């Protein structure tokens, strides 16, 4: 049971990481205007590079949908080692690609998942094309510039995609929004000259991991600084005590 609970939690965590990666990659690559001449004249990758990426994508697909077969294969490889021959298996793989727990608590069918996801994808695709986008026309044009000249500094962000992550984990991420307005007349404050809205999310790794670790190391270093007095005689006494302790251990 714990195996499937951990697998479910890992799947949810992986989905969150994939969404975060999509937000960062999509906002940094596809929503930005070219900021150099070299970027403006970029070309599509060559065929060998596209083939290599396609191979990696296909391996991800194969590992995901044929996990039962791969688990059975890795289990045989593991049992060939002496250290793992007496180890009991948490899962068993049947000939029809069913992955089942040893206690019979639950099982997963890889072909069933493949068929289920295929049907869901087909229904969503056909429903979107026939019902939602049936009378909708897609036209390509310039972005609305609000009457100003577009420049590379004006970048569309992926806040729309990241907002769901921020709302779900707002108690942990603690987002903050700051608005800075500059007026033509600071006294009347009627006509704004410029306005800047900044949405900031603190770095959780820095706050909850690196800073406490740094604080702990600094505290240990300050306490251990006492024994590093810079006196050669003290260092020689340390070596002498270490030799005495080593002799007691050996003898």
How would you briefly describe this protein structure?
The protein is mainly alpha-helical and 251 residues long. The chain has nine helices and five strands. It folds into three domains: 106 residues, no CATH class; 34 residues, no CATH class; 46 residues, no CATH class.
Structure write-up:
The protein is mainly alpha-helical. It folds into 3 domains: 2-107, no CATH class; 169-202, no CATH class; 205-250, no CATH class. It has 9 helices and 5 strands; from the N terminus they run H-H-H-H-E-E-E-H-H-H-E-E-H-H. It has helices at residues 2-30, 37-40, 47-65, 67-79, 110-132, 159-168, 170-173, 204-224, 232-250, and strands at 91-93, 98-101, 107-109, 176-183, 192-200. Strand 2 (98-101) and strand 3 (107-109) form a beta hairpin. Helix 1 (2-30) packs antiparallel against helix 6 (159-168). The longest helix is centred in the first third of the chain and has 29 residues, at 2-30. The chain is flat, with a radius of gyration of 30 Å. 2% of the residues are buried.
Distance between the termini: 51 Å
* Percent range of helical residues: 55-70%
> What would the principal axes of the Cα set say about the shape?
flat
Q: What summary fits the major beta sheet?
A: 3 strands, antiparallel
Structural class, please? mainly alpha
Strand order of the largest sheet: 1-2-3
Q: Report the sheet-strand fraction.
A: 5-15%
Q: What is the average per-residue confidence, as pLDDT, rounded to a whole number?
A: 78
Total tally of structural domains: 3
Q: Low-confidence parts, pLDDT < 50 over ≥5 residues?
A: none
Q: Enumerate how many helices there are, as a single number.
A: 9
Element string (H = helix, E = strand):
HHHHEEEHHHEEHH
Rg on CA atoms, Å: 30 Å
Please provide the count of β strands: 5
């Amino acid at each position: 049971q714990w195996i499937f609970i951990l697998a479910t939690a890992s799947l949810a965590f992986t989905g969150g990481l994939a969404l975060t990666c999509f937000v960062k990659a999509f906002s940094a690559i596809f929503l930005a205007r070219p900021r150099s001449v070299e970027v403006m004249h970029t070309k599509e990758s060559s065929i060998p590079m596209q083939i290599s990426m396609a191979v990696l994508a296909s391996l991800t697909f194969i590992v995901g949908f044929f996990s039962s077969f791969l688990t059975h294969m890795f289990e045989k490889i593991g049992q060939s080692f002496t250290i793992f021959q007496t180890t009991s298996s948490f899962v068993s793989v049947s000939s029809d690609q069913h992955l089942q727990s040893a206690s019979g608590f639950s099982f997963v069918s890889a072909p069933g998942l493949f068929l289920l996801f295929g049907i869901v994808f087909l229904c969503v695709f056909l429903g979107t094309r026939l019902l939602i986008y049936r009378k909708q026309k897609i036209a390509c044009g310039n972005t609305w510039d609000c009457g100003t000249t577009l420049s590379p500094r004006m970048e569309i962000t992926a806040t729309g995609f990241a907002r769901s992550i921020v709302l779900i984990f707002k108690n942990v991420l603690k987002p903050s929004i700051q608005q800075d307005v500059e007026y033509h007349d600071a006294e009347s404050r009627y006509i704004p000259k410029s306005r800047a809205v900044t949405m900031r999310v603190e770095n959780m790794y820095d706050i909850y991991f690196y800073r406490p670790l740094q604080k702990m190391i600094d505290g240990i270093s300050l306490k251990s600084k006492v024994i590093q007095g810079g006196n050669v005689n003290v260092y020689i006494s340390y070596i002498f005590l270490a030799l005495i302790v080593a002799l007691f251990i050996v003898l």
